[in-house]
Specification:
single chain; mainly beta; Rieske Iron-sulfur Protein; 4-stranded antiparallel sheet; two-stranded antiparallel ribbon; 8 strands; about 0% helix; globular
């Protein structure tokens, strides 16, 4: 996956159907549950893009809440102090694997 790209991965989180956003930012791979902290909506529920126009922050396409891609922390006043739910990932032989124990096989 190239820099500033993302993938939406269907999965089961704590035995419930969800999806994850997996992304590369500044050379590192991160994964978050694809759910905004403001409302129970996918970050990509309106538009496929999840990075803001400057490609520096994650952005909820519904209300524009902005998140730091390295920590999942909300940078918007409305949700200050809240964070996206991080998922543990590893990159093994150029493959990105979700290794979070709360995640089971895809839906």
């Amino acid at each position: 996956m190239a820099e500033q790209q993302h993938r939406i991965i269907p999965l089961r989180f704590e035995n419930q159907p969800h999806s994850a956003i997996v992304l590369r930012h500044r050379g590192q791979v991160y994964a978050y549950l694809n759910q905004c902290v403001h409302m129970v909506r996918r970050l990509d529920c309106v538009h496929d893009a999840v990075f803001d126009a400057q490609q520096g922050h994650l952005r909820c396409s519904m209300h524009g809440i902005v998140f730091d891609p390295t920590s999942g922390e909300s940078l918007s006043v409305l949700c200050a102090g809240e964070r996206l739910e991080p998922l543990r990932v590893r990159e093994i032989d150029e493959q990105i694997v979700i290794v979070d124990k709360r995640v089971t096989a895809p839906v």
